[in-house]
Amino acid sequence: MDRKDETMNLDDLKAYLNDVPDSGEFDLDSIIAEVEGLAPAQPKRQPPAAPAPRAQAAPRAPAAPQPTPRTQAAPQAQARPEAPRRQAAPKAAPQPAPRAQTAPKTRPAQQKIVGEDDLPDLSAFEQQEVDERKARRAAREAKESTKRAKAEQKRAVRVARAAEPPEEEIEQAQPSPRAQKRARGQKLSRKEERAARLAAEQAEEEEDIVLRDPTQAQRSALRRARGLNVRSLLVLLLAAAAAYLSLAPTFEMLPVPIALDAGENQSIAIGALMLLQFIAIFLGVDVFGMGFFNLFHGIPDRSTLVSFSVIASLLHGASIIVFDNQSGVEIPYLAVSILLLYAAMREERGRCAARARAYKAIASAERPMAVYSHYDRTDDVCRAVKGPLGQMEDFLREMERPDTIDRFSMIYAPIALAASIIFALVASLGRGDPIRFFWAFSALLSVSAPIGLLCAFGAGYKNVSRRLLGTGAALAGARQAGLLRGTEEVILTENDLFPAGSIALEALQNMGGMADDKVLAFAAALTDGAGLELGRVLNETLRERYGAVASAKSVQLVDGGVAGEVGGHRAVLGTAALMVKMGVRMRAGQSADTCNAYLVVDGALAGVLTLRYQPTKGTYHAMRTMRRMHMSAALAVTDFNISPAMVESQFDLKRGFADQPDPATVDRIMDAAYTADDAPAAILTREGAGPFITVLRAADKLAGAVRSCITLGAFAGVCGMLIVFYLLFQNAVSALPVLHLLLYLLIWYIPVFIITQQTH
Questions:
Q1: pTM recorded for the entire structure
Q2: What angle separates helix 738-757 from helix 689-729, to the nearest 10 degrees?
Q3: Nearest-10 crossing angle of helices 404-429, 478-485
Q4: What is the pLDDT of residues 491-526, one digit of tens each?
């Protein structure tokens, strides 16, 4: 019973139950006595012959069935007979009870110990509790496993969305020659590593870039280039004078005043050389100070080595004057340090002149085109793509990035400076003569930055920028030139191959009952509606003939032609191959320099247009240049007359030079999102393949020249420091005069000078 029933009057309950007919199944007095806590009365015995059908209880099963959630409280309450406040009911006929009920609470004085016969079957209830716990544990584990499976499924979905499709699936979906080479075992993963490395470098350099106005930057760079040009020539004269005074004692045929003769008056001659050095520092104070400025800001470069070389030569000259009878050369390397300062000034002058031309091209262009170097993961090829420049700041940011030589100098300069200090200490303190440190330090620094390394970029960039400005283009730098140098395929459109004026209507052959002007109007309407350059040519010809201009509807490009509706007629303009597919009979052919376009109106051949595609001189040389550079052409064209075979025939190229991707690939390449993550390497202010290929050729020359000059200069610097250190440690004074160091620097500069001249 419920707790609320504890206060129920038993007399009322007895009166209420008296209305039930007594069938002998139970004794009401016994039940009331049991509820009150008294001894239960003996139930009445009924004759077995006439048992009541509803009075028989169902036989007890050995294992109790699983209870429902609403009736689980009853077995748990019955399984605790030792509880002081709860009393289990004796076994009796089962009564239908909608809810589980517990025995009513009784007072302690009225409780009575029930005999063993009245206790329930404890083993059955214990087994039932064990089964219930197992069932709950199994349900909980199943729920947790389901939750884990759902979490794993969600995680797998996220990983699948974030990850790119594997290369094997891409190659199976779109097999390409590059993919076939990869399948044969050739390694091409370096392209992906190069693209990822460049992207990471660009992300790191974004924070330190400050953009400038192109017009003001052009004026500033041009003014600085002119000033450096004049001052560097004066420094060159000072270097020649210092070399003359340094070499005069060695060559007796060179006349020199006795007061300036190092053999007669050593202190005065060294003082004169130091005076020339101070004048050279005054003329190139910006380059001299920039070396220390970059060092203090954590970006040492080549000018840092020049600045330290100048200081070391001055200290060496002062030590010769102050300390008498010291071991070492008699004349300091002041002439060498002045020559190195001149080389650094010429390098800065060349860079400023080239940047002034690049800024001029930017400022003069209204809507420049950008040249991108894009690595296509789908086709596994590096492409040079020309597209509209979204923002001018993108190209200006590329110009302000550290260049190839700058990134190399940040690694080479501190290593060379540290090696010079260590070698000088070993050569001086190791022999027990600390005064020799100034001589050793000056000699090592004189060869640590060869002239070839100092002039590795400026002269070549100046030569390239001069040529590009004449063709209407500009290159951001040697780093961007290196990106374009890896181009394997160039994307060319019909405007690149045949710019305005190179396409003309040769003849018009009427094949039906339509007038010539109407045939021309139909062809012009179809091509103009498709956005072809041929449409502009046909419209101009139609206006010259005073014909009526028509308009086309539902224009669509088909394989080998264009179709649409003109004046209520279904018209198709295409090549001979398209006519064969359509089942149209024709008679005209195709020559080497002409192309035929067939016009079909309502299923009948209406006319044949003979077109002449005449390559321009600039485009012809550009295509031949591509062949020499081992680049292939991808024709992203919509003109149905332009095909790889036609291009190879028109430009006298070998078979297989040009390729035409499928329309889906062309749409993907020409989309602006194709190069959205790429930085512009160059800009173009003129249309056509001539400026486009000129930029690629100039980038190839500049990147190759800079790489070769850096290699030769670094090799000369490392070898020079090792040789000088060995001679210093052996105290070979006669092997380290000023003449030998000058010859060493000039000899290594000869190949660099020849390489630089190839960039003109």
A1: 0.70
A2: 160
A3: 120
A4: 998 888 888 888 888 888 888 778 888 888 889 899
